[in-house]
Automatic annotation (TrEMBL):
Residues 208-232, 600-683 are annotated as: Disordered. Residues 6-138 form the Photolyase/cryptochrome alpha/beta domain. FAD binds at residues 316-320, 355, 358-365, 477-479. One of its GO terms (cellular component) is nucleus. Gene3D superfamilies: 1.25.40.80, DNA Cyclobutane Dipyrimidine Photolyase, subunit A, domain 3, HUPs. It comes from Tilletiopsis washingtonensis. Residues 626-648 have a biased composition (Basic and acidic residues). GO terms for biological process: circadian regulation of gene expression; entrainment of circadian clock by photoperiod. PROSITE patterns: PHR_CRY_ALPHA_BETA. Transmembrane segments: none annotated. This is Cryptochrome/photolyase FAD-binding domain-containing protein. Keywords: FAD, Flavoprotein, Lyase. Its cofactor is FAD. Binds 1 FAD per subunit.
Amino acid sequence: MAPSSARVLYWFRTDLRLHDSPALLKALELKPAAFFPLWCWDPSYIYGHRVGVNRLRFLLESLACVSASITALNARSQLLVVRGNPAELLPELLRRWQITHLVFEKDDNGYARTRDAAVREIAKDAGVELVDVDGHQLYPVSEVLKRAGGKAPMTMQSLQKAIAPLGEPARPLDAPGALPDAIVPGAKGAAKDRKALLTALRDTLDGMPHYSAKGPPDVDLNGPKQGGQRVKGEKVTVYDSLVGPDEDVENLFGVPTLESMGMDPEASGATKTAVVPGGEKAALKRLAFRCKDPAYFATFSKPKSSPALDTSEASTALLSPYLKFGAISCRRVWWDAHDAARKYKGKHTPIPENFKGQQLFNLMYSVVESATGDAYQHVRGNEISRYMDWYLPTAYDKDGQVILPRPRGDEVSEERYEAFVQGRTGFPWIDALSRQLRSTGWIHHLGRHSLACFLTRGQCWISWERGAEFFEELLLDWDPSANAGNWMWLSCSAFFHQYMRVYGLATFGQKYDKTGALIRQYCPELAKFDDKYIYSPHLAPMEAQKKAGCIIGQDYPAPILDEKEEKSNCIARCKAAFTAKLHGADKEVLAGKAEARLRKAHGIPDPKPSTAPKSAASKVPAWAKAKAEKEEPASTKKEEEEHLHEAAGGESATADKQPARPKRKAPAASASGSKGKRAKSEK
Ligand SMILES: Cc1cc2nc3c(=O)[nH]c(=O)nc-3n(C[C@H](O)[C@H](O)[C@H](O)COP(=O)(O)OP(=O)(O)OC[C@H]3O[C@@H](n4cnc5c(N)ncnc54)[C@H](O)[C@@H]3O)c2cc1C
């Protein structure tokens, strides 16, 4: 069919693929006379979020893959990367390239919501038809929300009820077989080759404002705030030109490199090459590999998969980073897994523990985020997040604006948080997971459980917002809906309420691997300990420490806190918070009065300072010297198993049950010395 007169700007965002892309196919249905595949290297993502080097690398690899796939379909084309804020660039691009249609995949979550509201106005003002098409989730988020009566579906049951009338998700669509040329306005036809196109396109952008003209953004891409990735002395920005360095035409409109951002993966704690490589091709290969074994998806049961394996041997599908960036379509994953599982004759795992259940959890968080709005990322203003008197909460000024840089919180919690993010808590299971995350960008779901439970209501009583920030920096699959939602779940702030159930800091990991292989890999200083002590080396006699060549408190930190004591303090605090029934959007919380009221009314003890000395515990505290055999496990096996089942999609995940009653009496207020210190730092 002859091309129409449509000049289409196709804006890639969280759909970095060509297969099953309803928005891309919609754009091609317009039979474009000219087709511009665009990516905006948006400073709001790079500066406005905490993006660690692993995720940046994954994104760059995914973009490079999309670009290569476009070129494979049309040798005269590629992904056109422009560097700047879409709200500033789009009006110019629409005008200069004489665009008639702006097409993209719809995104209902987080920052995209505000950005796209502005883009809608821009298109309207430019007289350009905006076509946005659902495709990132199994069902359109807005449709699910409508069917849930406009109320956030807080349980798997309510989500399933809302989607039931919609039937099965759509089958995936094929990738296009060809892509039209990007034809520069005024040109008689397509450029002779890609280089000619890039040069001609660059010339159309002459005089367009960009950051180097206005001065680069005041945050340094390579600075410590961006994850401590500084490896060169100087400030680095990729925004000093609009279309990339032009010494080599090949690089015009090209994907930036880590190197051009002054980033060295190893210097920031990441592996030299990606453990999980980015891109559509890698995604499809990984899915195909899993589909080879029909039993894998048929018997997939999240609670039974092991968190004690390294990233390269993940027991779960490890598709989350690809799903997050849209390098693979969720419908493709759903149906390929479904079709593979059908070949399996044995018993299949039911929803929600099975693989489909996991994908539905993702949809659930997306819908809840969309219903809750921007407040979803914080406690304050968030109607679904229970209010707990966490340490290190987000600070606000008198107008309710987040204070940045964040003021320091109390000394004890700041030290604990630092030890947590550095993987130096003195609890090898926690430290190995924290270091695995920093190194590879991914840890298993139950590893995330262990970290999140420990940091919040398990032992440290630090706000889930801080935990979510840590994950935001390091996770390859960081997603504003799934991340904050899961942190709320694990901290018993929403979705899950069984606060008595706490993961043991040694016992949980041991369940999966008694030999502590993950610990030996990520905490090599502990590698020579016997299996008996690998999860609790502080309990090893001095002789055993010497034999292992690792003295606790010297070569590896002593535990930063007493697991049992802090667990019972935290349970008491949870109990008080549950009794108070306050939520983030309640008046008292918004007025800043909830914390004092909660602590006073319920006689909540201020947490004790670490019984370990400051700075990663240089001495072994007396309590930690007790022998392993004499120690009563901090979490009972039963508690852990029930928790595990529910937290990974088991029974209670489907019902918003009341919390179990604590069996123990809340401990009395703690030692006065520590109290004074806390009180002072919190004023
Ligand atoms: C504290 C915490 C923070 C998390 N932050 C994120 C995040 O930022 N982004 C993210 O994608 N997932 C997040 N998760 C959910 C989950 O841990 C990951 O999706 C999962 O581990 C990814 O590995 P996989 O692809 O092998 O998962 P699989 O078990 O193979 O599951 C398949 C897919 O289902 C989805 N999924 C599975 N479990 C969940 C879940 N609980 N919530 C939402 N989606 C799920 C993912 O898209 C995943 O790729 C978080 C979990 C916790 C406990």
